[in-house]
């Protein structure tokens, strides 16, 4: 794995998530706020990868199914949009 560092500073407002991040720091799960944010980003990436795997299996075409008017990529994008809607 290659670690890349960028010189750009980023400001993030955590809002309600700040309490959860501070709780993780107080309980020793993370040493700093940036560690808590990075851990959550990694968890989100794992969650998305699992979801993509589920979508791939669920929308895999059956041999006897007629072709769909939507492509596989369009179907996954549509389902992801619905999932992320508030």
From TrEMBL:
Residues 62-86 are annotated as: Disordered. This is Uncharacterized protein. It comes from the Bacteria.
């Amino acid at each position: 794995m290659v670690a890349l560092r960028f010189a750009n500073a980023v400001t993030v407002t955590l809002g309600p998530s700040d309490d959860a991040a501070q709780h993780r720091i107080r309980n020793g799960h993370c040493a700093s706020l940036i560690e808590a944010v990075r851990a959550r980003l990694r968890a989100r990436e794992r969650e998305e990868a699992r979801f993509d795997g589920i979508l791939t299996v669920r929308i895999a075409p059956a041999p006897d199914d007629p072709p769909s008017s939507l492509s596989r990529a369009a179907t996954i994008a549509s389902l992801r949009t619905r999932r992320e809607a508030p």
